[in-house]
Amino acid sequence: MNWYEFLLRNRSEVLERSIEHIGLVGASMAISLAIGLPLGVALVRRTGLQRWVIGVANVVQTIPSLALFGFLIPVPWIGGVGASTAIVALSLYAVLPILRNTCTGIAEVDPAVIESARGMGMTPRQVLWQVQLPLAAPVLLSGIRVATAICIGVTTIAAAIGAGGLGVFIFRGLAMVNNQVILAGAIPAACLAIAADSGLGYLQRSIARR
Amino acid sequence: MTSLNDGFQNGYALEFRSTTYRLPSGAPLIAGLNLGIAQGETLILLGRSGSGKTTTLKLINRLLEPTEGDILISGRPSASWDPIKLRRGIGYVIQDAGLFPHWTVERNVGLVPRLEQWPEEKIQARVREMLSLVGLPPEEFAKRRPAGLSGGQRQRVGVARALAADPPILLMDEPFAALDPITRADLQREFRALALRLQKTIVFVTHDVREALFLGTRIALLEQGRLVGVYAPAEFLKAREPEIHAFAASLESGGAHEGGQ
Prior knowledge:
heterodimer, A: mainly alpha, MetI-like fold, 9 helices, 81% helix, elongated, B: alpha/beta, Rossmann fold, 2 domains, 36% helix, disordered C terminus
């Protein structure tokens, strides 16, 4: 029996795990966007503070994911075993690229455009929403794209703390020393990553073309 | 109750009173400027790079705030105006136009009327009128984006945008400096006619003495943040100040200042 037959035979569980996987990624991305975008906007002008925050986010990114999941288990409120802990850890990983690209994307907008926007009497809020964010959108989206790719990858490890997802097959396969089972998790995860990346890439190109 | 068109107690649309602007380091970019600008005139701020021309302009629309002294706008100190309201009543054109690259020409020109929440039909009509005024047929240009325009066309859109809400005051910061000499001459000619017709109070920054002589009703010469003097174009080249000789020389050498900085 090859991995493909295994996949077909277990398609209902593969589908269920894929949906779990997507749910974990979706929830984490939503949280990291909700934190990363406003924080990035707030930090654009505060370059000193920005260096600190991005430095901390960089450090978080260097923590091996398995270790980070482990660290979070004993933390009260957010910790424990299961999906919520995994979502916290995944959000921490995804927030860096979003934060960094929000800052650089906005900072790279032509200063002459910002100056004329202010000079014509746009309020700071109007400058942000109507000028800075739309012009930063391609850079911003590339950050989201990187974050999504990281998230889909790291979510496979989240199975180690009982969060479910396609990683379940990978850990089961490792325990059974069975490559077919590993591939039944790894291949759908890779497909998800490719699909998300090309989808966001398409969105990014169509925004840049506007 | 207040508008930029209201009351001119002293006859000036704009007046600098001992205005000084310092950098946080304490170095003055503008020192003790006293200058009155009459309603409907085109005042040129002439000077080399770093003479404080752009700083002077930005003090008017409060992109910068004076460190000392006042600027009276329609007789009222600039600090007492709401900066957003003030800026919507002052047209602003900068060197590379500063058009929004993600907006069509039409939307760019309609910026201030839309900020001021004019009804949509009125905005549409006004945008068409403005584009025609600056020599860009609306049918051809309204839907285009700034990236698809030549430098001269972009600058025309910049002028149309600045005029769209019919502001009584127009600030222009080297608007034609980056254009090729032929396009620049065209725009200067058209702009002069427009300025005569519209009777706006215009403050126009340039380092090009030819442009200053051609467009200005008066020329204010700045040197290292200080006002050397204010001259009618006819008397400018005859004035004795040594600072003027450098500019006169640039004119004789066939326009050493051409082609921007």
